[in-house]
């Protein structure tokens, strides 16, 4: 499959309809994904990024039908992560001397991955590469989201090849933003930001403002995953600026795990209390052991506050909750409030463990938490309801 984005600018990547997990098992991709590679033909020919290694032979075979591989003058590696560089070994086997343009950190990563001494050409922000009538301008984007990340801007057609930034894990036959269901597009773009870019939000805002300040025309933004932004392309940059500003909606999410339903009963009564106090707030409950962890992270991203609940087991907390807390600690959410709750039988350490995790993860913990011994009594459930009301009042 190949399609035209602008005259002599083509998508030549791979749509991965079957992908359901990405980054190993870390990220769920309910709608598949795509690895976007772009071919720019001018007096010189440039290939921007490749695809994941399992599709390397298919990718190079298809590419060879579109262009004589020996006619490719430049390979641009915007990012060394294997979903975009995985076909480089197969490609470079055919064209071993073709220069590979990337950042200095890109050289380190690509050498680290493939142990090859390709003809690397190091570029920095502002460096240009003439293709004849048009040129590529390189923009380093360190830690968005790897040290080596960069973007490439094509003059003339005014296309920003943004790599991971502005991407979404979507497989579609309609690879433009105006052709897909908007709610699905923004759901996936939000999930992508929440799960991948949240820790780098200060850098996201800085880089977007830096690029916007150049006042370059932008006719399209071509990310390395999902659909191309051609209809009002800067709308996604504006969204990123909102998301980077410690984003929150009027939502409280209650995330819990439960053994014999006691902690679930607390969760549901806390939710009732929150709604009693403030019926404008969106309240969502997620059993973390039965929910997709990345979808729950997206709910946390949208929340102004969260409550986390686990019963005590073996002086600790349930393992699905532990994994979730580890994930949100790494994502470094800011400007969100939190509290803990849970049932216990005899020792009851879970509240302190949950509270410590929330504090370490950067949440403002609002109280000492709510504990209920054994299965919650009517009195304990009333306390849970009041706990929810009080929490809603504080957030
Ligand atoms: Fe899509 Fe950072 O790779």
Describe it for me?
With 395 residues, this protein is of the alpha/beta class. It folds into two domains: 3-244, Metallo-beta-lactamase, Chain A; 252-394, 3-Layer(aba) Sandwich (Rossmann fold), CATH 3.40.50. Helix content is 35%, strand content 22%. The strands form five sheets. The chain has a seven-stranded mixed sheet with strand order 1-2-7-8-9-10-11. Strands 17, 18, 19, 20, 21 and 22 form a six-stranded parallel sheet that branches. It has a five-stranded mixed sheet with strand order 12-13-14-15-16, with no helix packed on it. Helix 5 (182-197) packs across helix 9 (293-302), helix 6 (201-212) packs antiparallel against helix 7 and helix 8 (262-277) packs across helix 12. The longest helix has 17 residues, at 378-394. 48% of the residues are buried. Bound molecules: MU-OXO-diiron.
Annotate the secondary structure layout.
Elements: E1 3-6, E2 9-11, E3 14-16, E4 21-22, E5 27-28, E6 33-35, E7 38-41, E8 45-48, H1 56-66, E9 74-76, H2 82-85, H3 88-94, E10 100-102, H4 104-114, E11 120-122, E12 128-130, E13 135-140, E14 150-154, E15 159-163, H5 182-197, H6 201-212, E16 220-223, H7 234-244, E17 251-256, H8 262-277, E18 282-287, H9 293-302, E19 305-309, H10 319-331, E20 337-344, H11 350-360, E21 364-365, E22 370-373, H12 378-394
Parallel strand pairs: 8-9, 9-10, 10-11, 15-16, 17-18, 17-19, 19-20, 20-21, 20-22
Antiparallel strand pairs: 1-2, 2-7, 3-6, 4-5, 7-8, 12-13, 13-14, 14-15
Helix pairs in contact: 5-9, 6-7, 8-12
């Amino acid at each position: 499959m190949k399609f035209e984005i602008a005259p002599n600018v083509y998508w030549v990547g791979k749509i991965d309809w079957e992908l359901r997990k990405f980054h190993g098992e870390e990220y769920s991709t309910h709608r598949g994904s795509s690895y976007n590679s772009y071919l720019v033909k001018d007096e010189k020919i440039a290939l921007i990024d490749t695809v994941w290694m399992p599709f390397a032979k298919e990718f190079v075979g298809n590419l060879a039908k579109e262009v004589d591989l020996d006619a490719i003058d430049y390979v641009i590696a915007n990012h060394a992560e294997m979903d975009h560089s995985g076909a480089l070994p197969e490609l470079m086997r055919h064209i071993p001397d073709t220069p590979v343009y990337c950042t200095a950190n890109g050289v380190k990563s690509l050498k680290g991955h493939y142990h090859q001494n390709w003809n690397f050409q190091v570029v920095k922000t502002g460096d240009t590469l003439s293709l004849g009538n048009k040129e590529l301008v390189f923009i380093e984007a360190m830690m968005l989201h790897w040290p080596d990340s960069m973007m490439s801007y094509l003059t003339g057609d005014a296309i920003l090849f943004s790599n991971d930034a502005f991407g979404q894990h979507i497989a579609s036959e309609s690879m433009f933003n105006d052709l897909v269901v908007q709610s699905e597009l923004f759901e996936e773009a939000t999930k992508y930001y929440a799960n991948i870019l949240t820790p780098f939000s200060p850098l996201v805002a800085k880089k977007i403002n830096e690029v916007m300040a150049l006042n370059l025309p932008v006719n399209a933004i071509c990310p390395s995953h999902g659909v191309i932004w051609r209809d009002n392309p800067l709308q996604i940059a504006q969204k990123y600026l909102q998301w980077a500003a410690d984003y929150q909606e009027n939502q409280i999410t209650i995330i819990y795990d439960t053994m014999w339903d006691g902690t679930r009963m607390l969760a549901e009564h806390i939710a009732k209390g929150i709604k009693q106090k403030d019926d404008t707030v969106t309240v969502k409950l997620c059993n973390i052991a039965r929910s997709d962890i990345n979808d729950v992270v997206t709910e946390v991203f949208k929340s102004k506050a969260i409550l986390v609940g686990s019963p005590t087991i073996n002086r600790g907390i349930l393992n699905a909750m532990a994994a979730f807390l580890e994930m949100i600690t790494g994502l470094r959410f800011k400007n969100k409030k939190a509290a803990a709750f849970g049932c216990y039988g005899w020792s009851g350490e879970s509240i302190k463990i949950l509270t410590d995790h929330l504090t370490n993860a950067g949440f403002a913990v609002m109280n000492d938490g709510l504990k209920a011994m054994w299965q919650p009594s009517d009195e304990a459930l009333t306390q849970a309801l009041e706990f929810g009301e009080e929490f809603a009042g504080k957030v």
